[in-house]
C-alpha cells in the first residue's frame, strides 16, 4: 500500500441530475481514503454558491477535509473576506488560491478587480487569517496557456510561494519530464514547498484532447494516435488510458512526487481504477 498523499477534485454539479448523483460518487471515492476533496470555482466567480453547496455536501456525506478553490479575478477584498469567513465558519482549513482565467479579450495578465495576481490573494489570506488556512496554489510544469514566456510563468509561481503558499498542485500533464524539470527549477530557486502532480484520467478521445487544448497541456503524439484509433471501442480505450496514466503516476511517485491530485470530473470509477493499480488506500 502506498503512503503517498492523494486527493480528489470535484466541480459543483450543473444539473439537478448531477446534484442527485454526487452523494453516491462521494461514497465511492471516500473508500480510497483521500486526504481531502477540492471543489472548483466557476469562471469569473460565477459558481461561488455552487462551490459552497458542494463543499457542504462533501462535509455532510464524507467527513473528509475539503478545500474550496477561491479565485480573485473580478472580485473585491470585501467579497473575498466574506467568503473566507464563511469557509472558516464551516470548519475549512485549506484553501486553493487562484487568480482565475482571464477573459478572452484581456490585454494583459493582470486580472480585473482589486486583486490582479494570485500572489496578492495569497498575501491577503495570510494577512487576514494568519496560519489558520493551509494555502494551495497552482503550478504549471508546461507553462500557463495565457503566459507569454516560460521564465515569467515560473517567476509568478515563485511569487506565490514567497507570499505564503504552503503547497501547490499542478495543471494536468502527461509528460513526466515536464514535472521533473519544473522541480529541478524549484530546487535551484530555493522553493521547497510540496508540488503535487495533477492527474486527469483518460476516459475518451475528444474530451481529453479538449481538456489538453484548453489548458495548454501536451498530449504526446503516440497517445493521441492510439486514442484516436480506439475511440469507437470504449472499453479498449479506457483500458489503454488507465495503463498510460498508471505508468505516469508510477514514474512520478518513484521520482519523488509527494502525492497525486486526481481531477475526477465527478466520476468515481476512472480514478478508483488508478488508485487500485497504484496501491493507494482502498
Task: List its salient traits.
alpha/beta; 282 residues; 10 helices; 8-stranded parallel beta barrel
Structural features, described:
Strand 6 (167-172), helix 6 and strand 7 form a beta-alpha-beta unit. The model has no long low-confidence stretch (mean pLDDT 92). The chain has an eight-stranded parallel beta barrel, surrounded by four helices. It has 282 residues and is α/β, with parallel strands linked by helices. The protein is 48% helix and 15% strand.
Give the low-pLDDT segments.
none
Span between N and C termini? 9 Å
Strand order of the largest sheet: 1-2-3-4-5-6-7-8
Helix/strand-derived category reads alpha/beta
Overall pLDDT confidence: 92
Shape: globular
Concise summary:
The protein is 48% helix and 15% strand.
Task: Describe the protein's topology.
Blueprint: E1 5-10, H1 16-30, E2 37-39, H2 48-62, E3 66-71, H3 77-89, E4 94-98, H4 118-129, E5 134-139, H5 150-163, E6 167-172, H6 176-189, E7 195-199, H7 205-215, H8 221-230, H9 234-254, E8 259-263, H10 269-278
Parallel strand pairs: 1-2, 1-8, 2-3, 3-4, 4-5, 5-6, 6-7, 7-8
Helix pairs in contact: 1-2, 4-5, 8-9, 9-10
Amino acid at each position: 500500500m502506498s503512503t503517498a498523499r492523494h486527493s480528489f477534485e470535484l466541480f459543483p454539479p450543473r444539473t439537478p441530475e448531477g446534484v442527485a448523483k454526487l452523494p453516491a460518487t462521494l461514497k465511492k471515492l471516500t473508500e480510497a481514503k483521500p486526504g481531502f476533496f477540492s471543489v472548483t470555482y466557476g469562471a469569473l466567480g460565477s459558481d461561488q454558491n455552487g462551490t459552497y453547496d458542494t463543499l457542504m455536501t462533501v462535509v455532510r456525506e464524507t467527513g473528509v477535509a475539503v478545500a474550496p478553490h477561491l479565485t480573485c479575478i473580478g472580485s473585491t477584498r470585501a467579497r473575498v473576506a466574506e467568503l473566507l469567513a464563511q469557509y472558516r465558519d464551516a470548519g475549512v482549513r485549506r484553501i486553493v488560491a487562484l487568480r482565475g482565467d482571464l477573459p478572452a479579450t484581456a490585454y494583459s495578465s493582470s486580472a480585473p478587480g482589486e486583486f490582479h495576481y494570485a500572489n496578492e490573494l495569497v498575501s491577503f489570506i495570510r494577512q487576514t487569517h494568519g496560519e489558520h488556512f493551509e494555502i494551495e496554489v497552482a503550478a504549471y510544469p508546461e507553462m500557463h496557456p495565457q503566459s507569454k514566456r516560460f521564465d515569467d510563468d515560473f517567476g509568478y509561481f515563485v511569487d506565490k510561494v514567497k507570499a505564503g503558499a504552503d503547497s501547490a498542485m499542478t495543471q494536468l500533464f502527461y509528460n513526466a519530464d515536464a514535472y521533473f524539470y519544473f522541480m529541478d527549477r524549484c530546487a535551484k530557486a530555493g522553493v521547497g514547498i510540496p508540488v503535487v502532480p495533477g492527474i486527469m484520467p483518460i476516459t475518451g478521445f475528444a474530451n481529453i484532447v479538449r481538456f489538453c487544448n484548453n489548458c495548454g497541456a501536451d498530449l504526446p503524439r503516440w497517445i493521441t494516435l492510439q486514442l484516436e484509433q480506439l475511440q469507437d471501442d470504449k472499453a479498449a480505450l479506457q483500458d489503454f488510458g488507465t495503463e498510460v496514466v498508471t505508468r505516469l503516476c508510477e514514474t512520478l511517485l518513484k521520482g519523488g512526487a509527494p502525492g497525486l491530485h486526481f481531477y475526477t470530473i465527478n466520476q468515481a470509477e476512472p480514478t478508483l481504477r488508478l488508485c487500485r493499480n497504484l496501491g493507494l488506500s482502498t
